[in-house]
Amino acid sequence: MKIERRYTKAGESPYANVPFRTTKSEIRNPDGSIVFSLDNIEVPNQWSQVAADVLAQKYFRRAGVPARLKRVEENAVPSFLWRSVADTEALAELPKDQRNGSETSAKQVFDRLAGAWTYWGWKGGYFDTEEDAQAFSDELRYMLAMQMAAPNSPQWFNTGLHWAYGVDGPSQGHFYVDYANGKMVKSKSAYEHPQPHACFIQSIADDLVNDGGIMDLWVREARLFKYGSGTGTNFSKLRGEKEKLSGGGSSSGLMSFLKIGDRAAGAIKSGGTTRRAAKMVVVDIDHPDVEQFIDWKVKEEEKVASLVTGSKIVKKHLKAIMRACVNCEGPGDDCFNPEINPALKREIKLARRNEVPDNYIKRVIQFAKQGYKDIQFDTYDTDWDSEAYLTVSGQNSNNSVRVTDEFLQAVEKDGDWTLIKRLDGKPAKTLKARDLWEKIGYAAWASADPGIQFHTTINDWHTCPAGGPIRASNPCSEYMFLDDTACNLASLNLLQFRDLETKRIDVDSYEHAVRLWTIVLEISVLMAQFPSKEIAQLSYDYRTLGLGFANVGGLLMSSGVAYDSEAGRAIAGALSAIMTGVCYATSAEMAKERGPFVRFMENREAMLRVIRNHRRAAHGERVGYEQLAIAPVPLDKTACPDQTLIERAGAAWDRALAQGELYGYRNAQVTVVAPTGTIGLVMDCDTTGIEPDFALVKFKKLAGGGYLKIVNRAVPEGLRALGYRESEIAEIEAYAVGHATLSNAPAINTASLRARGFTDEKIAAVEAALPSAFDIKFVFNKWTLGPDFLTDTLKVPAASLDDKNFDLLTHLGFAKSEIEAANIHVCGAMTLEGAPYLNREHYPVFDCANPCGRTGKRYLTVESHIRMMAAAQPFISGAISKTINMPNDASIEDCEQAYLLSWRLALKANALYRDGSKLSQPLSAQLIAGDDDIDAMDAVEEVVTANMPARAATIAERVVERVVHQLIREREKLPDRRKGYTQKAAVGGHKVYLRTGEYADGRLGEIFIDMHKEGAAFRSLMNNFAIAISLGLQYGVPLEEYVDAFTFTRFEPAGPVQGNDAIKNATSILDYVFRELAVSYLGRNDLAHVSPDDIGHDVLGKGQHEGKAPETNSVVSRGLLRSKTDRLMVVQGGGAVALKAEPTPEAVREAEALSSLGWTEPTKTVTGVAEKRAEARMKGYVGEACPECANFTLVRNGTCLKCETCGATTGCS
User: Fold this and answer.
1) Which is the catalytic residue, given 192, 243, 347, 478?
2) What confidence tens digit (pLDDT) does each residue in 457-468 have?
3) What is the pTM of this model?
4) Of the listed 325, 328, 335, 476, which one is catalytic?
5) Is the confidence at residue 179, as pLDDT, over 60?
6) 474 part of the active site
7) Rounded distance between C-alpha atoms, residue 494 and residue 488, angstroms
8) Which domains does the chain carry?
């Protein structure tokens, strides 16, 4: 084949006009810890830091790259394509630790990819001359460097390692068909024939242990998961529950085996990689167990809810029962007898009322009876990687139901539907089709699964029906072909083909790239090895490819065209038509030289029929389609603003059909639209696959660390395309991202602040904090301005400084409308709605998948997503991976109608995601409008009964939409002359002196611990321990946290306590100290052994000291009086840290405010999970943490998720 040079020149490096830079790659966890770091990596200048990070972390070979190489001569191969191996002699001269290393330059990666493809292409006879081979290699290297295209991840992982570096290893059980003689070969090397395929469809037989059966599938899946690929299988061949077995008895059914496979997939993930196993499970709509399959994830989500809620309820009651036993003072076993111990009886009744099992209640009582003082009972949360989700099944796959036109017509007519036994084909059950359809709708609404695959439409466009029907897909539903086949993917970055001068697609460049990458994928089939003989053989026989594109959303916005418009759909359809038409024309060109795929002749008429139908759609025809149950959406020739695209689309399909009729095709399929997750980041795509953008304001990662808030680069381009002036564009951009300064801000500016008492120093402090602020309110606080300035100059009440609801700007007299106007000016609206100069008729151009920013209301409708897919689907060999985002208030009927519209528009598959349908995703709005005014008694009970971590979690859940910045807590020093008390006691015969120091309002601020006659080392440790606790208290660590941490600790000395009238036994010195502090300052009488009503000279006792008053007068110390300040005149507001003796709603809010702070000097502004999720959703992310780097930067990526920080995906691209 002849290869034209378009981007490079003969005799010149493909990088001659591509400047490179050296940078550092570093990916961190949210807590600041380093996940990955590599210095001095070389990447092209125009690459973003995220693209550089993903390349370095994901795709660089990080070990085993020899520092010295030598070429291996091959007579039949040009010298520039000779492969390399380690030069052992040269390496011997180097120190051992310098002989092997990592790839450090993007050029190394580009060279090994393009070199390996060209090497195998030469051996396979794909080039006419050496010049063509060199041009092929150069053009590909240039396109990779310029982010014009990228292959799927397994190519980056595996391709070229053997060719470029001599990397090798033992066989992993793979097979390939020798391209020279067509014979099956078992691989002897792990890397000589790389594994470049990302997508697999595997078969399963209704057999338990033999080859091709159930257990064999788990082994084959494991081999794929291990190397980062994904797989899908239709499990409908497995017999249903209670169908007969050959040896007698009955089958356990489909679901029992699906759960085994789910566990196996989960184990692969946890066994060696952080990436989830990418898996698709498909079941036919007439399977006897299809109802259980549809309900599977719904019920598993319910189990998670039960685990989370139930675990917390049970723990609460078991702890209360334990306390009732431990705190009781009675002879013998009286404390453990509910008929004698009234507190125990009360707690048992409360536990039973909440369905706590009797055997657990009995177990705790027995535990206490054996001398234990506390129990460990784990609770669960709804995080998607939590133990709760790991406990239930169905979390390691995407699920789809395979529906036929016959079933959907029965739904429309409210007809019956029969489920068929697998063994004998007899009816298993008859039910209303509409009932089954509503079950699907409810399941998708409640749990985001199952998706739908339209079996009839898929097979109407099947190019090879002689090989059998298409029954399944890969995990993301874009590759649909025969069982036991594979597909290697690559995607083109559409925005890179937009000419910046003409503002149109450079069609010649686009077609050139499509041709070259079709050849790349074809060569990849030739060079590849596969995980089974069956897949190796059928991949050789059919040679399916998966070229696609990314950045449709970015291209349309840059062109000033709305995603939800006839013009937008026409452009996407035309680009799809050109791509697939040129692919098939190139496939026919290769068939002319190398012959058609092995199974072409038996499928010739069927394939040409499909090609003719594609061509009709490309010419905009609405009738005349051959053997299609549902006609496709043809190309809208009149709506496309660039008629060149329409002309070239028709011409490409004319050529594809004409050459195919002459020579056949080298490949049974050529295109799909994949999610392009990780590779989309490497290409710096604004949008993935066919998706629209998810946000207008992005956070650009900086090379030195940190992020910069920037407007999506498609926004200014789109505004220019719409005719806006540069000055207007600058103002619109500033409206979105903010000016990050108070200068010229409305209402709240330097002048208005000076008038209210702000000094130049304080204004400068505010200005310094603005660039990184999400909201102006987060800057106007005591941590920026200092408490003294607030109280002395601005006359802020001291009590308001720690109130999380206190708004300084409102206190200063600014109106809500003034604050909002200044907020938009300074921090930006993160949306274009309401932007100056922007015409309302242009709003649709900048619509995203979700509402943008704080004030954005607009977002793309469900129908707009579906119609965009329908515009492209007639021109794609496979299918389109996409999830349709739905708002939280979407109904079950909305889900059903979305699926029906997809069917009527001839889509092959679809999946829905309703906002909040997963427990792991928080709702984007308050459940109850009056959450802030929750009933006071409920609030008090919540504070009193929960420990501090639980309180913090409760508070966090209520502020889903509010981003709360963690603020640095300054040290609150004690007064020079302070009160407190000294308590002398003996623990296990060892004297202990505990001295406390209090603030003026009675809060505990310091402790001193002294041990009488102990060794110097032990006494010093205790003294320094007390200092550490005191510092913590003064920095705001709640006393409750220390009490929870140190009570019930066990070490010597321990035993009976003498000299303390409330505590009679301790398991250690620390147990005693924090029991005493808890009783005295927190009112935690549950940790005392004597009731407070039985302490003092005026109680009914045994008569020993009856009527005798204390020898000394009581001092007004809150701790000494056990918090009974109502008997004396004391300073108001006592209590520990922030909790007052008699909780009020105001005190509850104050306690919640303090408990929400971490009280350590933070390196990040947001630490709570709920706050991180809220901030993430404000930025346009889904609000879940990445399983690899833990950053909350996941976005929807087809039917999967992708991390914008590290590039990890939950799919197979």
Assistant:
1) 478
2) 999 999 999 999
3) 0.77
4) 476
5) yes
6) yes
7) 19
8) 20-146+160-186 (no CATH), 199-296+397-681 (3.20.70.20), 305-370 (1.10.10), 933-965 (no CATH), 982-1092 (no CATH), 1175-1210 (no CATH)
